Amino acid sequence: MRRPLDEPGDTVLHQRSARLHRGYYSENLAAERLQRCYDVAPPAAREYLEAEVAFAASRVGRDDVVLELGCGYGRVMKELAPGVRSLVGIDNSLASLRMARRNPALAATHLTAMNALHLGFRNETFDAVICIQNGISAFGVDRTALLTEAARVTRAGGLVLFSSYAESFWPERLAWFEAQATHGLIGEIDHDATGGGVIVCKDGFRAATVRSDEFRDLADRMGLVPRIVEVARSSLFCEMTIPERAA
Q1: Distances from the Cα of 135 to the Cαs of 10, 131, 208, in angstroms?
Q2: Would you state the pLDDT for residue 144?
Q3: pLDDT at site 21
Q4: pLDDT tens across 83-119, in order?
Q5: Strand pairing of 110-113 and 86-91?
Q6: Where in the chain are the domains?
Q7: What CATH code is assigned to 8-241?
Q8: DSSP 3-state assignment of 131?
Q9: E strands of the chain, at which residues?
């Protein structure tokens, strides 16, 4: 089973894994290959994906200007777009963004290549910032910095919405990743190193999660009060409303 990252050498290993993880989604799992990951999803994973997007869509309104972090090829954006005033998507994969631009359903949206840790938007630009499908782990960046930057560009009274996997979804999640490995989309699963909410592949790819207590700790560091919601026994959402800022 996976051991805690509590030794000096483990910190270096974790940093190296994070760099590899970011490369996976900008290169290995971009555009059509990323779409294929969703195409091979078993029925339980498909239900999870649909419920997750439906919940996110229910948390924004028709007058909202919304930003999606890690929009990929637009899988989530095409579901959000009809229900909001304006929608912006950012990603670090040019291939995924080019694929999104070819989708007629995204013709009225705004797509741009950008680092989620260094958003090129003014303070309080958006009514809602959304990052689902475990982007908080998939990005392989500092989580506090990611949430802080998302909060910076969200107006007072606006919403910051992140999601990860529910712990109860572990068997279905592992089965989905095994399907991706079978189709050559990710490396072979290292079952000896996999466990405790973390999936490890033999090529170095590592997919972690964020638990409810970790979401609460992150929000507390930022002085925010989180609302933690488990959806369909598969997604774990952390919803934070941005308070009024001091003048």
Answers
A1: 23, 6, 10
A2: 96
A3: 54
A4: 999 999 999 999 999 999 999 999 999 999 999 999 9
A5: parallel
A6: 8-241
A7: 3.40.50.150
A8: strand
A9: 65-69, 86-91, 110-113, 126-131, 154-165, 199-200, 206-207, 226-231, 235-241
